[in-house]
């Protein structure tokens, strides 16, 4: 029973891990008014998507931009920069939910510089623009844009997209984060071929961060706790011996190997991100690596059950194990706050942790029942003077 519960938990986690990646693509997105666009792109950062149709006969660009604000009540933005590749100088469409009506609205902003972000008509015509709130909490911007003649002649435009935490009084936008995903949310949009190119360096960094996050979530956040659950609960069943031990060792060694790979990618990211330091996340990561390395040696230093040092080995092994379990889960959530992935990823992990906690409580109760019944059977055995005498004398023999 316990093994089947843990197995179902493991496969549930992978289903949750894979399903968001399958569903969150632009090709699977639908619109309430059934709008159809010739092209769609999964933009490389901030979990954002662009649908567009370009009509070269009248240089009209129809777009639908979808993203999720960094916090509830925040904003999303898609912009064209006529003269540069960054945010400064861009002409932006910004959407957010009106705090009074709760209806999504879209406004135009002229971002002449980072210190000057004001509502203003754009330098090109936008004959139609609307916004809507989607069922998953994201926002969508719909707009028809008259592409300036010089950009239409080139066939490409510089696009910039962004998400922010909130909107102040008078529609003033609160400053967005300056994490790597925010800084690399820009690229060149090919209007004729329906393609987008981005800064390859920024794209590579985001991929490394995603790999780092996945490796560490699976190792410190899933496999280590799963191995601890196996050691604590499965071994209580006599029929599971010695299978529980090999399952425990397999989980912990696999977790350590994956965790070391994740730790290595973290060191690499740190060396490539001068001036960007996440001290708490970094120090906990170092502590986890040290504790787990010492813990692995427990496998080779494990005394026999009747050895006088086994009691002290148990204290060392259990204390290090629980420290790794707690620190690992804490650091996974710190990583989520740094990376800021699509909200569904964090929700999926929280579901897994809650499920593991619930299963642990259930197995804890079952384990105590099994142990107490076993002790009860032993205490009700018929008196055997010879065997009892032997058992009474055994401690003296040690």
Automatic annotation (TrEMBL):
Keywords: Electron transport, Heme, Iron, Membrane, Metal-binding, Signal, Transmembrane, Transmembrane helix, Transport. Residues 1-23 form the signal peptide. GO terms for cellular component: membrane. Residues 379-398 are annotated as: Disordered. Its cofactor is heme b. Binds 2 heme b groups non-covalently. Heme b binds at residues 212, 248, 281, 317. Residues 387-398 have a biased composition (Polar residues). InterPro entries: AIR12_DOMON, Cyt_b561/ferric_Rdtase_TM, DOMON_domain, UCP037471. Residues 46-164 form the DOMON domain. May act as a catecholamine-responsive trans-membrane electron transporter. This is Cytochrome b561 and DOMON domain-containing protein. It comes from Gossypium davidsonii (Davidson's cotton).
């Amino acid at each position: 029973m316990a093994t089947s519960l843990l197995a179902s938990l493991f496969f549930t986690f992978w289903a949750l891990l894979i399903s968001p990646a399958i569903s969150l693509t632009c090709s699977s997105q639908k619109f309430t008014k059934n709008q159809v666009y010739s092209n769609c792109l999964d933009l490389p950062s901030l979990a954002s998507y662009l649908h567009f149709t370009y009509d070269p006969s009248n240089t009209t660009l129809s777009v639908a931009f979808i993203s999720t604000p960094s916090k509830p009540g925040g904003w999303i933005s898609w912009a064209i920069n006529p003269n540069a590749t960054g945010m400064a100088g861009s002409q932006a469409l910004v959407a957010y939910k009106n705090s009074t009506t709760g209806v999504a609205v879209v406004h135009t902003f002229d971002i002449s510089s980072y210190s000057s972000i004001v509502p203003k008509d754009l330098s090109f015509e936008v004959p139609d623009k609307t916004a809507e709130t989607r069922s998953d909490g994201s926002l969508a911007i719909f707009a028809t844009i008259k592409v300036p003649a010089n950009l239409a002649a080139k066939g490409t435009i510089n696009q910039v997209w962004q998400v922010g935490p909130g909107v102040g009084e008078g529609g003033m936008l609160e400053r967005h984060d300056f994490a790597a995903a925010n800084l690399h949310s820009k690229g060149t949009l090919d209007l004729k071929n329906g393609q987008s190119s981005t800064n390859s360096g920024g794209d590579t960094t985001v991929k490394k961060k995603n790999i780092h996050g996945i490796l560490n979530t699976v190792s410190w956040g899933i496999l280590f706790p799963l191995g601890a659950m196996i050691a604590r609960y499965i071994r209580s069943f006599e029929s599971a011996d010695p299978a529980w031990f090999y399952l425990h060792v397999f989980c912990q060694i696999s977790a350590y190997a994956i965790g070391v790979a994740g730790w290595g990618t973290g060191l690499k990211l740190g060396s490539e991100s001068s001036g960007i330091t996440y001290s708490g996340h970094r120090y906990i990561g170092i502590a986890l690596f040290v504790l787990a390395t010492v813990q692995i040696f427990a496998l080779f230093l494990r005394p026999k059950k009747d050895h006088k040092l086994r009691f002290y080995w148990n204290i060392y092994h259990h204390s290090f194990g629980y420290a790794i379990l707690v620190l690992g889960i804490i650091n996974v959530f710190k990583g989520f706050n740094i990376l800021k992935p699509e909200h569904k990823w964090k929700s999926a992990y929280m579901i897994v942790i809650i499920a593991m906690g619930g299963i642990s409580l259930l197995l804890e109760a079952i384990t105590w029942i099994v142990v107490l019944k076993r002790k009860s059977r032993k205490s009700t055995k018929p008196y055997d003077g010879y065997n009892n005498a032997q058992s009474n004398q055994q401690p003296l023999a040690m």
